[in-house]
Amino acid sequence: MKMRAAVFEGPGRMVVREADLAACGPRDIIARVHACGICGSDVRNFRTGLKAEVGAQVMGHELTAVVTEVGTAVHRFRVGDRIAVAPDVSCGECFYCKRGWVNLCLHHRMVGTHWPGGFAEYVHLPDAVLTHGMVHHVPEKLSLDDAALSEPASSVIAAQQNAGVGLGDTVLVVGDGPVGCLHLEVARARGAARVMMAGLTRLKEAERFSPDLLIDAGTTDTVEAVRAATGGLGADVAIVATPVAATQGQAVRAVRKRGTVVLFGGLPKHSPESSFDANLIHYGEIVVMGAFSYPAHVHEKALATIAAGQIHPGMYFNLVVGLDQVLEGFRAAAEGRALKVLVKP
Ligand SMILES: [Zn+2]
Ligand SMILES: [Zn+2]
After folding, report:
1. Which DSSP category does 212 fall into?
2. What is the number of the ligand closest to the CA of 117?
């Protein structure tokens, strides 16, 4: 079958055109895409190319859809089901999968990279995605627009779960993009007493989420501001949601002894090195941890959290575009003109 899709054809090139939709095998499903968020990684890949040397592909991995066709051997879904799809697919067999750390799978693959994604009229979800990926039913009271935020929310929830953010905590979020704002909302939902946020370019957007302290990193020293607000101690947890190495060093200086620093954002591929005061980590017994993706059950948790009203998708998606305006959407996301862009094919 043919469909319309935004096809990435190489760095800087994406064309909205007719594309092939694979036939529905006995263990596959096909769904009509309702909405698909533009992720920071989509913007980056659009500029620099997809992972695994994938040349041409339909990108998009924060999608919701309505099932239109179900393979004869599939029992979990029916035509008409409302679903949310998250991209990561594990192999189920490697060293990490066997230990339950599926997000660290040695053969990690993604919808929108290894399989066509959500910037299209339809998405074909094959057996591997249904069995080792993340396709979940959207809770009844949750709209398919709002459910599209479940993917980015999932990595945020998993990171805070691993960092143990909880009751009474003072949390510093470095980064005022959509992911920073998600960290703020999730920290609150987990019981943090105070959430501070340091940002540079999107402070106005961030302010709408009412952080207890909003630090303009362009004019104010983040570390000093956090120390001043914590009686000199520092935050319990600092989460770095920027691609800037220097902010990682700041986070180490902004937490208290035995505090936790979460490196949530990756650094640019060509300059992944960072420097920080190792003695602070050593003498202060500070934990510095990474965060990447999440297991499938966390995606279900994200859907439940949004349905419960603890995350507010309407505050993120401030630009909605059709498939034909997808390039305009990418531009707006790249320039930070919208906190989050939703494509509705
Ligand atoms: Zn994403
Ligand atoms: Zn694996």
Report:
1. S
2. 1
